[in-house]
Specification:
Helices cover 40% and strands 16% of the residues. By secondary structure, the protein is an alpha/beta fold. The chain has three domains: 176 residues, Rossmann fold (3-Layer(aba) Sandwich); 151 residues, 3-Layer(aba) Sandwich (Rossmann fold), CATH 3.40.50; 199 residues, Thiamin diphosphate (ThDP)-binding fold, Pyr/PP domains (Rossmann fold, 3-Layer(aba) Sandwich). The strands form four sheets. The protein has a six-stranded parallel beta sheet, sandwiched between helices. A six-stranded parallel beta sheet has the order 15-14-16-17-19-18, sandwiched between helices. The chain has a five-stranded parallel beta sheet with strand order 10-9-11-12-13, with helices on both faces.
Length: 568
Amino acid sequence: MTTENQTPELTDGFHLVIDALKANDINTIFGLVGIPITDLCRLAQAEGMRFIGFRHEQHAGNAAAIAGFMTQKPGICLTVSAPGFLNGLTALANATVNCFPMILISGSSEREIVDLAQGDYEEMDQLNAAKPYAKAAYRINKAEDIGIGIARAIRTAVSGRPGGVYLDLPAQLLSQSISAAEGKKSIVRVVDPVPRQIPANDAIERALNVLKNAKRPLILLGKGAAYAQADSEIRALVEKSGIPYLPMSMAKGLLPDNHPQSASAARSFVLAEADVVLLIGARLNWLLAHGKGKTWGKEPKKFIQIDISPTEVDSNVPIEAPVIGDIGSCVSALVSGIASVSKPSPEWLGAIADKKEKNMSKMAETLAKNPSPMNFHSALRTIRDVLKTRPDVNLVNEGANTLDFCRAIVDMYQPRKRFDSGTWGIMGIGMGYSIGAAVTSGLPVVAVEGDSAFGFSGMEIETICRYKLPVTVVVFNNNGVYRGTDVNPTGGSDVAPTVFVKNARYDKMMEAFGGVGYNVTTPQELEVALTEAIAAGKPALINAVIDETAGTESGRLTNLNPSTAAKK
């Protein structure tokens, strides 16, 4: 209480931002310091928050996004203005497309200067630049609005279909002062930010009726199913229904990949032959050939789609039975009525089993080979065998061939343990996701990277070493993009566009920052190095030398590559 002669205790925008985040149980910030947010980062650390400083804002944003996917709370990325904001914007857009909740917070120039284009330091209209790539974008202009502004950003990021939110903090705002008492009252703790959305009874009944008439049903699990953390409900639906299921890459591990109902080894067969497909947290986008074409066979399908967003329904093909609501509630409702649905026929299950056996036998023959030098299959067989003994390890995976083969070879046994290029199929998520997963879970991370993919974020191994994170990076080194054998057709001194420095030693980069480096050329050496690195729990990089002729142009996306498609 103040008297007439006393000055009331004050607070400012810096403190209010930290207070608002902490009030909502957000205790980690990923970012990169600079004008005007350096003091905000210092204060966050002084107030007990964890600040993870990166070398590039895009990777800080990716770390925040994957933290959001893992926790269902928005990951926070903090950047400087203009160029720093634009670097973070790439990660924000990727988070929005993938439905990962994150908040990009950036310092910015004052509106009166930006609007008159007066040439301020790093002047940019960041709010309007962010809008097309975010779920929402907000600016806070008054210190007393910081609490409600952050609460609004949090609720927007996680409610309904999750996504990225941009929050603009002009430099003036951070230094604004108000009374501490007024500031305390302005802080908002968000109540029930993700309310359950119960599906309509008639929607559930319609879906069950479609399943009752199915002869060859299939359940397809997307990463939205993994994000929902409705693991027990989804398992109950799969096992009580007896319907075979197919997980998309980031849904692997929702049920262990060796589950008898998994149809992963017969993916092409079940997509083409199923007559009814139940989509749970999966979108019929390019990753599923938009639900049409030869991927889906000659006969038309009936789709049941569970999604939080009604606008996703009918986005590519007609949906016979839309079920709108949160995945946990929708799946629970289906489980309650699934007893009325007959189990799939022995003919359908038998056909899948036969196809699985043939494909798995063929893959086993390929994996059993030990070519010298190593290829993708022999190296990934080794990684598969090591990770089978450590199902708690988080797996980050990116590349072209490295991604395609790893997804098919390395099994997952626990949910939300596999993080990869996602909906956009982009490169550059590797080290950001690895750092985000390690910080969020406290558990080991193995990042399986193509040498090209690693180049997008490789400098962040310094960040991994600085924070002593239990991250082991495996770089599949075949001297180039796709492979290292292309030549310059002119015979000139410049190498071909896809070729890197021959016999590069990426392990020496890790050693330069104080981590452990390994150079391996055989599966046996890779097994020893990976086992040792995971057990040590320290930063490590394994330079896995593979045959430079291994790999195909564009991996499995040759149909999207105009030059490759033209050669067919």
